[in-house]
Structures are given as C-alpha cells and as structure tokens.
C-alpha cells in the first residue's frame, strides 16, 4: 500500500474534513460509543466556525493516491491536539501514524514541551502506543449527553 500524501490544511478543506470526521465518529468509533453519544459528538451539520477551528493552528491532512482526504489532525500553538481522525476504510493502515509523525515533528520544531488532548477510547489506544500517558478519565457533556474521554499528555524531551 502506498503511504498517504501528507500536506497542510488549506481553506476549502472544511467540508471534506467534516464528512471524514462524521464517518470516523459514526462508523470508526461505533464499537466504543452508543449511537446517542456519537450523535452528540458529531451532529449531521458542522458548527459555523468548523473550518476556522480546523485551520486555526497546524492542520495536517493525509490523502490517498486520488487526492481524497483519508485523515487529518490539528495541533494548536499551545500543543493541544484537537482533532485526530482517519476515514474508517483507512483505519489500521498507517494513516494515523503518518499524520501523527508530522504533527510531532512540528511540535518539536516549535519547541513545544508538552502535548495534550482529550482522547476518545480509540484515540487513547493509538496515542498510548505513541508514548502518551493518560492523565484522567473524564465525562464531558455534549448536547445533554455524557461522553467518556481521556485527558492525555506527552512530554517532548
């Protein structure tokens, strides 16, 4: 399998990123979250500020040979990993690793001392394999629905 092409996010990526996010939550995370939780986490339509939020820091996109988006991650200037999603058909095929490697390169280049996130059950497994630690299990409220996630961090030496 050809490794994904990695590029920076750009204006206009919002709709494809939201479609991927929606599928990753509703299909990719289905084994970990109930339908009500997934619906609260990823409603059918994005918030009006979706693309601005997506592009507010470092947005790294993975694409297949046809230039279709197959994954993305975002990293804020403060070291917060906000989004980390891979299309369900591409999960387990190295896409997340390729994108994450670029995210960590950026963090090191910018001398970020600590990375942090609030990870889903699925993301927690991936991040743990990449040297992150779980700091706390927490319940967050989205649209009156409680969703479990994990506060995680990674110190960059």
From TrEMBL:
InterPro entries: Acyl_CoA_acyltransferase, GNAT_dom, N-acetyltrans/Recomb-assoc. Keywords: Acyltransferase, Transferase. Signal peptide: none annotated. This is Putative N-acetyltransferase YafP. The gene is yafP. One of its GO terms (molecular function) is acyltransferase activity, transferring groups other than amino-acyl groups. Coiled coil: none annotated. It comes from the Bacteria. SUPFAM superfamilies: Acyl-CoA N-acyltransferases (Nat) (SSF55729). Its EC number is 2.3.1.-. Pfam families: Acetyltransf_10 (PF13673). Residues 4-157 form the N-acetyltransferase domain. It is an enzyme of class 2 (transferase). PANTHER family: ACETYLTRANSFERASE, ACETYLTRANSFERASE (GNAT) FAMILY PROTEIN.
